[in-house]
Amino acid sequence: MQNSSPPKQVRAHVFIAGRVQGVGYRYATVDTATELGLTGWVRNLPDSRVEAVFEGAREVVEEMVRWCHAGPPAAMVKEVVLEYESPEGLSGFEVRR
């Protein structure tokens, strides 16, 4: 029997550009991240981008980042900029103002 360790926790900080405000992007992000069991937050930026942070197991965070490239049906994503950072141990997932 193999002794498997829990997956490594990672933090992805993403900036999403395109038609991503006013199309339900933030709330779809909350729903998707919550379904995947991730923690973090999402918010609109004054320059029309959306910013989000996801914390969780690497493969699940990577799945969420892939989702960000499409977003909800009404969104038109042009660019996703991704930076990996040290996890902060966030709890829950929220929309920030």
UniProtKB/TrEMBL annotation:
InterPro entries: Acylphosphatase, Acylphosphatase-like_dom, Acylphosphatase-like_dom_sf. GO terms for molecular function: acylphosphatase activity. It comes from the Bacteria. The keyword Hydrolase applies. It holds the Pfam family Acylphosphatase. The keyword Chloroplast does not apply. It catalyses: an acyl phosphate + H2O = a carboxylate + phosphate + H(+). Keywords: Hydrolase. Its EC number is 3.6.1.7. The active site is at residues 26, 44. Residues 11-97 form the Acylphosphatase-like domain. Signal peptide: none annotated. Transmembrane segments: none annotated. It is an enzyme of class 3 (hydrolase). PANTHER family: ACYLPHOSPHATASE (PTHR47268:SF4). Belongs to the acylphosphatase family. This is acylphosphatase.
